[in-house]
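Justification of resources, computational component.

The compute hours requested in this renewal are based largely on the per-chain cost of generating structure records like the one below. Each record pairs the submitted sequence with a full structure-token output. That output is archived, and it is also reused by downstream analysis tasks.
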Amino acid sequence: MTSAPFLLAAMLDARLAPDPLAFLEAARRELAQGAGPHRLAQLLALCSRHLRAGTPLAPDAHAAARARQAGFDPARWSTLDAARVALLLAFPAPAPRDTAAAFEACLRFADHGELCALYHALPLLPHGEHLAAHAAEGCRSNMRTVFEAVACDSPYPVRCFDEVAWRQLVIKAVFIDAPLWRVHGLDTRLSSQLARMALDLADERRSAGRPVPPQLWLCLGVHGGERGARALQAELDGGGAAARTAALLALARAGAAQRALAWLDTRPSPHPSLAACLQDGDFTQAAFGRLSQPATGAAS
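The structure output for this chain reads:
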């Protein structure tokens, strides 16, 4: 498997002008020659002088697929994100304490963009599994982009978070409307405790006269029980197209695909692709992501 540093270097080589490439090469040499954690933090900050914030990295499909195989997903990264992650990976860290010292030094004075890069790097850092407490702290951020840098498009939380931190991440994603379908491994870590928390949140929303976020129903799986079934029926009886789409998919995820298909036989489909998903047995979080995109021809 091709290494993450090599893949990042290739993507940046394809996107950057000579000046930022020269800066990155000089920074890598400095780190290889023994620059310490505080200098690494300075170099991360200096990146913004050489690379423009907001410029998409935009890897081609082949490069993106190879990156996912290597354990990261840069599809939504900027070139500045990628450059900072590349420098973090260039820092020599033979022991867990070296990784922790570097991460904590960078975290201490990080601005918003640097925070996001630090959290993007988590699944790639040597001994990064020892930084789960810092990652959980990132999930408590009030900045949605920082939360998503930890929670979305990354294998780190599902691999490294304990059950309490995992459930908190998932419920917060629902609460702030971060894309839950992009939380890697959601379908592998559903539980009765998570389902209960999700149903409690649904009840709170309804009591306040507010709609339930459709992605909340991804949290149930087979763990919702009778309470979950009643909640899903309420969405089918009174929800809009997005709510009914999510509820029908959730019924299938709970083992009641035939009931969902029978419902569709007698009513207009809330999404033109939903029946095909149910018939194909595609009830995954990725299917929800596709179904949550706007579609023409859906019933209102």
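Residues 296-300 have pLDDT under 50 and may be disordered. The two ends are 47 Å apart (CA to CA).
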